[in-house]
Amino acid sequence: MTAVFAGHEVDVDHEGYMQKPEQWNKDIALEIAQDVGINELTERHWQVIEYMRERYMEAGSAPSIRALGKESGVPIKELYKLFPKGPAKLAARISGIPKPRGCV
Amino acid sequence: MSVETLSAPTAAPLSAAEQIGKVSVIISKGSLDGVYPGLIMANGARMEGIEANVFFTFFGMDAITTKRQDNIKVATVGNPGLHMMTWLGSVPGMSAFATRMMKKEMEKLDIPPVSEFVEMISDSGGGIYACKASVDMFKLKKEDFAPYVNDIITVGEFYEMAAGGHIIFT
Q1: Residue B74 pLDDT level (bands cut at 50, 70, 90)
Q2: Stretch A70-97: mean pLDDT
Q3: Which of A61, A96, B38, B88 has its Cβ near the most Cβ atoms within 10 Å?
Q4: pLDDT the model gives residue B1
Q5: Which CATH superfamily is domain A2-94 in?
């Protein structure tokens, strides 16, 4: 399944999570963010996005919300302000990595 | 998403009425296996953007009592889930041993210790409440609870808070 974000055709799953992080770029991130109701990506959003991508490239999976809060440099309270509908999933989607499947 | 070229049909998104908007989780037991499922359900709800409140009652209150929250143990007697003979489960130190093993496995899955987990739910915007009847019965005070406990509430107040959502009893 593919979708077109910011003029680039990318592989996605049926919920819109990108399957190939290497196809991602910042314009794509901006467009996905708008799709999920986040109209502006601030410096703090980008900090989370960069951490998500680094972590995925290293570990091959998205971080848990606990790891995200401890290691991204953005505490959990703020994560929920930046990504109100669920930081772990929304940040993964905007970061162009597959959907996290952990329970915590 | 500007233009979409989908090679397979997508499932229709859930309508607002089909989505769960709010959950109220009741934690009534004070063992490790009594406390964690409710915490995981509440935290999982917040991760999905679902509003969540956790109501601690009876021995479940140990999970928010500062002195007790990180000393919660797995019961090795009367717990058939452990597949252990009763006499073996009653050997001194067995409960501590089983608890240590289980905590180690949970740490591998990035499941935090109880105090950290409840605080995490609170930081995620989840409400943390103690049950007034149990507080009175155990003669506890607000100071006995972790600082992130929002309030001590009655059953009536709990139902008011839970209105319009789902209640999960554990």
Answers
A1: very high
A2: 95
A3: A96
A4: 45
A5: DsrC protein, C-terminal domain (1.10.10.370)
> pLDDT of A32-55, one tens digit each?
999 999 999 999 999 999 999 999
First vs last C-alpha separation in chain B: 41
Q: Do the beta carbons of residue B33 and residue B98 sit within 8 Å?
A: no
Least confident of A6-15, A22-31, B14-23, B39-48: B14-23
Q: Give CA A19 to chain center in angstroms.
A: 12
Q: pLDDT above 70 covers what percent of chain A?
A: 100
Contact (CB<8Å) B1/A3: yes
Q: Which residues of A are catalytic?
A: 103
- Six token digits for residue A10: 């990318």
Closest CA to A50 of A68, A76, A31, A70: A68
Q: Give CA–CA dist B64/B69, Å, rounded.
A: 6
Residue B47: which of A3, A16, A86 has the nearest Cβ?
A86
Q: What pTM was estimated for this model as a whole?
A: 0.90
Q: Which of B56, B18, B24 is nearest to B41 (CA)?
A: B24
Q: What is the CATH number of domain B22-73+113-169?
A: 3.40.1260.10
Which amino acid is residue A102, in one-letter code? Answer: G
Q: Identify all chain B residues contacting A14, using CB atoms and an 8 Å cutoff.
A: 8, 10-11
Tell me how close the Cα of B52 comes to any Cα of chain A, in angstroms: 12
Contacts of A86 in chain B (CB under 8 A): 46-49
Cα–Cα distances in Å, from A43 out to B40, B114, B166?
31, 32, 37
pLDDT value of residue B103: 93
Angstroms from A49 CA to nearest CA on chain B: 17
Give the separation between CA B48 and CA A94, rounded to whole angstroms.
15
In chain B, what are the domain boundaries? 22-73+113-169
- Give the number of A-B residue pairs with CB atoms closer than 8 Å: 71
